[in-house]
Design brief:
9 strands, single chain
Length: about 425
């Protein structure tokens, strides 16, 4: 019995030690992970030499006092109005980030040329303005407005060309770029003391504070990474950054094409493929092929037609089907003067017939303009007259393709042979 009890004590001791060992091991691993995480955070903080000026701290405090946004009657509202001072406060930070991340600032001449080539905007160095404003809802409206980067999935975007520093950016709130809680603890203290409800136009508004945003560090890192890759692609011709944008920021690449930057064939191919394979409004898809200049003249995107020609056979077929639907829709309601409508639909039908013939998908495009239907603006004769009036847009075989395909490949008695 004594020997058995002795053995039992030994087993109990070993079992206890095993659990103690496991507990010690878990604690060591946990400490190691914490140390690693802290090292990572410190590394990120030390990567950029951020020094906040009195002006930047003043802007930061104003932003923190109004929060990210607010809520009233279950509706989200903006609680802070951004201005030039908010954008100004970010410029030294953005300059520091880009320099540390290897962005090569182009010469003034190179930068002016690239802004003209990509965005169609002219920088006049003699003018005192600091920024050029770009937007995708009214591209011809040049009046600068200050809208913060919106992290929600929205269609409207605002961008700024920083003339003196020679880079491209969105407008960020300062907490979207820096760890303000570490850089300015007194700012954090003021934010924490801000009431959770504020008054706006006599109404109580629930405030969403920056310090309560759980994913702010991740958002901040994403903002920085996007900023760097966009500028390296635009102004350093980095294909590595282009690859990153394809995978992580495709909407920005599409914005460039829809802002009528069509000089990069690989970009055009990517955006076309993306739009062909997305379930979207036909009108949105068709707008890849044209735009109106600020003077009202129509510009047809032959570069996108070339992208269709380079596409895979499957993509070509999908694209041609969408174009046929687009021609029919635009014939009914294009919102354009008839002369512009005829030019757009005529060129689109012409190129589609040419691309479609080897795929046995021709006779489907000009025929949309070669018949009369109730509710459709313009008859076959209207289009024929308009094409002749403009000498078939100086395309050598336009007339022949139009006459060969306008009736869908079918001949009826009384038709011209």
């Amino acid at each position: 019995m004594t020997k058995i009890c002795y053995l039992c004590h030994i087993l109990n001791f070993l079992t206890t030690m095993k659990y103690h060992f496991l507990l010690l091991l878990l604690l060591l691993v946990g400490c190691q992970e914490t140390t690693t995480q802290n090292d990572t955070d410190n590394s990120e903080e030390e990567k950029y030499n951020f020094q906040l000026s009195a002006e930047q701290i003043a802007v930061l405090n104003k932003q923190l006092s109004k929060g990210i946004s607010g809520e009233i009657y279950d509706t989200d509202i903006e609680t802070y109005t951004y201005s030039k001072s908010d954008l100004d406060a970010t410029i030294p930070l953005l300059r520091e980030i880009l320099a540390k991340e290897g962005y090569q600032q182009p010469s003034e001449t190179e930068f002016i040329a690239k802004v003209q080539r990509i965005f169609g905007r002219t920088i006049d160095p003699s003018k005192p303005t600091d920024y050029l404003f770009l937007n995708n809802w009214q591209p011809c409206d040049r009046q600068i407005r200050y809208y913060r980067k919106n992290t929600d999935e929205v269609y409207f975007y605002s961008y700024y060309i920083v003339k003196k520093e020679r880079f491209f950016t969105e407008l960020f709130a300062l907490p979207e770029l820096i760890n303000y809680q570490k850089l300015c603890p007194e700012c954090l203290q003021k934010e924490q003391n801000t009431p959770k409800k504020i008054q706006m136009e006599g109404e109580p508004v629930k405030l969403y504070k920056w310090c309560e945003e759980k994913y702010l560090p991740e958002q901040r890192q994403n903002n920085i990474t996007e900023l760097v890759h966009r500028n390296k692609y635009l102004f350093n011709d980095s294909r590595e950054s282009f690859r990153w944008l394809q995978e992580h920021d495709a909407s920005f690449l599409e914005y460039l094409v829809r802002y009528n930057y069509l000089k990069d064939k690989e970009l055009n191919d990517f955006v076309l493929h993306k739009n062909i394979n997305e379930d979207q409004l036909i009108k949105h898809f068709g707008s890849l092929f044209w735009h109106l200049q600020c003077d009202g003249k129509l510009v047809f995107h032959t570069e996108m037609i070339e992208a269709v020609e380079r596409a895979s056979e499957d993509d070509k077929k999908l694209c041609l089907s969408k174009i046929a639907d687009y021609i029919l829709m635009m014939r009914k309601d294009s919102g354009l003067d008839f002369a512009l409508q005829a030019e757009l639909l005529g060129k689109l039908a012409y190129y589609s017939e040419k691309i479609a013939e080897p795929l046995n998908m021709h006779f489907r495009y000009f025929v949309k303009l070669g018949f009369q239907a109730e509710g459709y603006e313009g008859s076959e004769l209207d289009y024929d007259r308009e094409f002749k009036k403009h000498n078939y847009y100086n395309i050598s075989d336009f007339k022949q393709v139009w006459e060969d395909t306008r009736y869908g490949g079918t001949w009826y008695p009384g038709m011209p042979e």
